[in-house]
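Problem 3 from the worked examples.
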Amino acid sequence: MTWQKWSVVPVWFLSLVGVIIIGAAASADMRVTWLAITLAGAVVLTFVIQIAIQRKERFVARATASIVGALAVVAVATAVFAII
């Protein structure tokens, strides 16, 4: 895995950690709000990381991979919370 791909993984990991914390700590009626905040934080973190590495090559691809991965994590968690 190249260093550019490693700039994507922390966003996915922190989204997963956020979802786990929300599942354990948030009440059922507040989960949707916290999931939205988690996704917003993932978007902000994506741009912070991508700007910090200061590489313009494949910026859009890396940012898209980060955001879509975080969206997938939050979407799966939303489906699981809806079933539970």
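Problem 4, a separate protein:
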Amino acid sequence: MTRYAALLRGVNVGATRIAMADLRRLVADLGHEDVKTYLQSGNVVFTSPTNDAGKLARGIERAIADELGLTVPVLVRSDAELAAVAEASPYAGRQDDPTRLLVAFLAAAPTKAKVAALTVPGGENLEYAVTGREVFLHYPDGGYGRTKFTNAYLEKTLGVVATTRNWKSVLALRDLTGG
């Protein structure tokens, strides 16, 4: 049995609303155990015997579509993957404010050409590192709310679905999965 975190893209930050009680029920109804949500932004942690993260993501997406009539991209990371993400940030030791550190989780690793095309919009001060299926982000002068280097920008430039979490959430999800 592996512990996972499912990260729903764009939930409860715009027009797409899902009650966390409904999300817990949907995931439990799929046969997963020890289901917990974190915050109101589409983070659900669960235990499953299934070792295929893509299959888990598709199952949750399908359940949300069937039960709630919503199309919501879902990305799944195992406990080990979340532990590796928490260890891999090149910026974690340089920043005390967790709102200035974020991780964009990607549905798939982008091509080298797409990564090469990723640039910081003019006049912005930020650092980023693309590592596999994650983009580590550091906003030394301010938070994520004032940038053009957003989740939508990453999706458009890299050509993959992404969902972004602040460092506090990344660490909490790592801890909730036991990673």
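Solution to problem 4. The domain at 2-77 is CATH 3.30.70.1280 (Alpha-Beta Plaits). The mean pLDDT is 92.
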